Amino acid sequence: MGCNNEPSQLPQLNTDSVAVKQPVKNTAIEKIATADTMDLQYGSVLLIGDKRVENYLNSPLLKFEPYVGFNTFKTKNIYKGPKAKINYKSNKIAREYKTMITQSYIGADDGANFAGHYIVASWGCGMPCQQCALVDMLDGKVYEGPFAEQGFEFVRESRLLIVNPPPDSTGYIELYCNWCKPRMYVWDEEKKHFEELMPGGDLKQVDLFYGP
Predict the structure, then answer these.
(1) Which residues contact 68 (CB under 8 A, 6 or more apart)?
(2) Boundaries of every domain in the chain
(3) How large a percentage of the chain has pLDDT more than 90?
(4) Contact at 8 Å (CB) between 45 and 78?
C-alpha cells in the first residue's frame, strides 16, 4: 500500500471469521536468553542462534563454487615422449621422499597428468595430510607442491591445481577444520613455482611449501 493511504482506506478485519487461540502454557519450554545463543565460527561460515541447535547440528556445509575452471589456464602442448630420469639433486623434497616420488612417477602409465609435461606425485604425511611434488618429464627435475587435507584435483591440459576439492559433483564440503577448505593454485611455467589464486582472480606469491 502507498504511503499516502489514509487509515480509513485500510480494509477492515472481519473478526467473526477469526479464531483466536489462547497461548499454551508449558513450563517444559525453555526460555531463550542472551546467554543461550551460540556464535560458532567454521572458517567463512558464521552460525548464530539457539544453543540447542548444536544438539541437531552435525556439521555445516559450504558450497565450493570456483570462479575459474581448468580451461582458464589451459596448456597448449601435451608431451607424449619418454620419461626423463628423475633428478633427485634438483630439490630437497626429491631426496627425502625418493620412494614415494619414484613410485608415482614410474606408475604413471598414461604419461603427463598435469600442465602438459609434469607428473604429480602425492603421498600421505599424517592425518589428515597429503603432500605432493611435480616431476618434469622433459628433464626429470622435481618441484614441490602444496599440502592438502582432502586430496588434489588436476588435469593434464591445465596449470590449475585444486587443493581439497569437494568429494562429489554437488560442490558441498564439511567445514570440520579451517584448513580443509578448497584452495586453488596456478603453476607458473616460467618461474617454476605455484601461485595461489585468490577470489577475484589475483595471484598471490607463496613461500616454499617444504623448503629449498
Answers:
(1) 160, 184, 197, 201
(2) 29-58, 63-205
(3) 45
(4) no
Cα separation of 209 and 148, whole Å?
11
What is the edge-to-edge ordering of all strands in the sheet holding 130-136? 118-124, 130-136, 142-144
Check: pTM over 0.70? Answer yes or no: no
The three cell numbers locating residue 191: 618461474
Find out whether 203 and 195 touch, Cβ atoms under 8 Å.
yes
Q: Which helix (H) or strand (E) holds 92?
A: helix 92-96
Interacting residues of 158 by C-beta distance below 8 A, sequence separation 6+: 70, 71, 72, 73, 74, 75, 114, 115
pLDDT tens-digit series, residues 101-134: 999 999 999 999 999 999 999 998 767 788 999 9
Q: Rounded to an integer, what distance in angstroms lies between the CA atom of residue 1 and that of residue 47? A: 35
Reference 167, options 152, 177, 157, 154; nearest CA is 152
